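Why do we care about 3D structure at all? Because function follows from shape, and shape follows, mostly, from sequence. That is the central idea of this module. The next example makes it concrete: a single protein chain, its amino acid sequence, and then its structure expressed as tokens.
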Amino acid sequence: MPALEQQLDVWVQRLRAIAQTGIAFGPAVWDRERYEEMLVLAAEMAATRPNLTSDATLAQALYERWRSEVGSGIAGYVTPKVGVGAVVFNDRDELLLIERPTHHWLFPTGWADVGYTPPEVAVKEVREETGLLVTPLRLIAVYDIRDLLDTAKPQHFYSLIFYCRLDGGKLTLRPHEALNAGFFAREALPAPLARAEQGWVEHAWAAHRGELVSPYFDPPTDT
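And the structure:
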């Protein structure tokens, strides 16, 4: 996708979030009308094709869905979600990876749950997805993940990755979360890898070798 189209999609999602958040905080009549108009505009932009033809039915459906998602006050403040992942190596310097139902391979990861600290989520995800027991030792990366190209279900979330020590357990699978799992050497990684463009493979091994002295984070952009 051309860079301009990617940027336009980011702007659509930012406009949508501003409008939804504005409505959530119960503004005065004039401001509410403006936020409603912004949400309509965001839906129309999202439903417009590169050749500038517009799908009015899609635009209306997007507006109605986005409007129905609006909460009240702080509960309606639109923010990125948070995911937590775990990088785990065995004593042969092999990395734990699982095959997702999408058939992509990735380290154990999942959405942050209410009532858990981020390291506790990492432990929970590894145990639930693989049956293994780990101890988080340090945060090694924070990734900015933007799946905004699907207008029906765009996502923006931060992924917190912890380097974990393998303590024990037996490798077992939950079929609805993982099709397969195992430990893999750097030169024998399965394919396809999920989100390899984020650089997590290099960061995982750098952390394991002690070369990643501080957590990685995606550099700021001008968006």
